[in-house]
Amino acid sequence: MSRTATIDRQPAWRALQAHADEVRTTHLRELFAEQPGRFAYFHRQAAGLTLDLSKQRWRPETLELLLELAREAGVPKAIEGLLSGERVNRSEDRPALHTALRLPADACLEVEGEDLVSAVHRTLTRMEAMVAKFHAGQWRGATGRTISDVVNLGVGGSDLGPLMVTHALADYRPAGVHEIHVHFASTMDGSQLADYLSRLNPETTLFVLSSKSFTTIDTLSNARTARDWLFSRLVVAERELAVDVDRDLVMRQHFIGVSASPEKMSEWGIAEVNQLEFWEWVGGRYSLWGAIGLPIALVVGMARFRELLAGAHAMDRHFQAAALEDNLPVLLALAGIWNVNFLDIRAHSILPYDGRLEYFASYLEQLEMESNGKSVTHDGQVTTYSTCPVLWGQLGPNAQHAFYQLLHQGTQAVECDFIAPLRRYDDVIDDATRTHLKNQHRLTLANCFAQSRVLMLGDNAIDEPGERPNHKRYRGNQPSTTLLLDRLTPRTLGALIALYEHKVFVQATIWDINPFDQWGVELGKQIAGETDRILASRQGLDAMDDSSRGLIEALWRVEEQ
Ligand code: F6P
């Protein structure tokens, strides 16, 4: 594509606009009626995942035109650039090499003279040693008791990935090891942390400070509170416990740091042996594959953590090698582009039908919206087209009793992703319980398939819709994608996450935006700092706008009572 012409001036974009005028007025049920074998045509499989795109509001010609758009936008070359370590994060002038974190040990990737594979595997080996020590019950707190609770203090990418995966893979805890209970505290108001502090024993609790920058106020506030809790409970209790506990010992036995800034970890007091490093070329929301994944490895063990990496790597290989028309991330991205840019569908709901994926939607909210919630191209031009849709979601079966009403009868067009494993509960030992749980799983799949069908067909999902008042009518025609996993395993989960990471990249490539920076969060941080100074000093209120002044004065009135 020429650098001066934006993507919406390119032939494929224009052809898609013309084509959309015609498809827009065609209902999904007509698309199904006119194309027998639509599932066979529009579904693909790779890395243990099945992607069904047949319920998108498109025709085979639509996909042809979208593939042409991808070619015009240079998607194949962009994929090569991403995976080979080009400086694709242009505003920060660095590569985005999360895929390097999941390369096998015998792979080779040298970027700008550095052998990344060895560096990555050195960190994995250090993680492995740490995890082994915890699982052997040999990581002891300052008073000599074995650590049994680990609290991850981090936010955004330093929280959501590990939180989502530890929850999803909780079934995969290894047998016969000392169990570590892993908790997550992210909120800057301290409410999650306060709850843990009221319940956990300081002698057996360790904190992992996860922060790429090690400057994030949310995490550092929680970390300070945690540190002082340990000092006051362990150091002051020295005589009572009859153990020689000093602050250095507490720091050494109760804190691990994970960051791209070893200097800042040292300044904060994290012992060098407890520092796990990662690199500036790993974006925060793409970082669960390395040291930020320590909580995951503490829950499932290092062998399963490596399976998670292998699953993601399988998706990376597919992304690199598959033709565009068979490439799952590319196809998922194109469905999104079609909805946002040509059908004006700018809301996207993520609906997993498996309780273990409870945090998957929150994870994707950051991945997609922090990556592609942009309106400036690589060249600094304001985009003349829409980019990332508003994305939200929650467990599908629960959402059926919450916001599906809007999906079925509201005024918004919404694209939905249904996600479900085909097999579940095979390993439940007790026969009666297994039968019940398997029935529950089948019921859940029935709901998953039924909901996407009703959203597609509306009233026509039943044979004889008959005459009905408007409030009982369903218009259907809501597009959806269904993603099936054979089972939810470390491997398939790894592939699923990587699928969405690459989808985001392909969309960013077509929209000509940088998915790896997040300048949009900076101003809020700066103004929050200034506001906090005003709250503390009670000076400078005159410079504020009328609403902010009113809110601050309301706070001060309460403080004065
Ligand atoms: O404020 C946004 C952000 O920078 C995210 O991109 C990041 O994942 C999160 O904050 C946490 O940052 P850090 O890991 O540096 O503490």
From TrEMBL:
Classification via Pfam families:
PGI (PF00342)
Q: Which SUPFAM superfamilies match?
A: SIS domain (SSF53697)
CDD domains given in the database record: SIS_PGI_1 (cd05015), SIS_PGI_2 (cd05016)
Query: So what EC number does this one have?
Result: 5.3.1.9
Catalytic center residues = E370 (proton donor), H401, K525
GO terms assigned for molecular function: glucose-6-phosphate isomerase activity
List, alphabetically, the InterPro entries matched.
G6P_Isomerase (IPR001672), G6P_Isomerase_C (IPR023096), Phosphoglucose_isomerase_CS (IPR018189), SIS_dom_sf (IPR046348), SIS_PGI_1 (IPR035476), SIS_PGI_2 (IPR035482)
Pathway(s) the chain acts in: Carbohydrate degradation; glycolysis; D-glyceraldehyde 3-phosphate and glycerone phosphate from D-glucose: step 2/4; Carbohydrate biosynthesis; gluconeogenesis
Q: What is its main location?
A: cytoplasm
EC class, as a word, reads isomerase
Q: Which Gene3D superfamilies match?
A: 1.10.1390.10, Glucose-6-phosphate isomerase like protein, domain 1
Where is this protein found?
A: Cytoplasm
Ribonucleoprotein in keyword set: no
What keyword terms does UniProt attach to this protein? Cytoplasm, Gluconeogenesis, Glycolysis, Isomerase
What is this enzyme's catalytic activity, as reactions?
Answer: alpha-D-glucose 6-phosphate = beta-D-fructose 6-phosphate
Query: Do you know which PANTHER family this protein is assigned to?
Result: GLUCOSE-6-PHOSPHATE ISOMERASE
- Main function: Catalyzes the reversible isomerization of glucose-6-phosphate to fructose-6-phosphate.
Q: Which family does it belong to?
A: Belongs to the GPI family.
Q: What is this protein called?
A: Glucose-6-phosphate isomerase
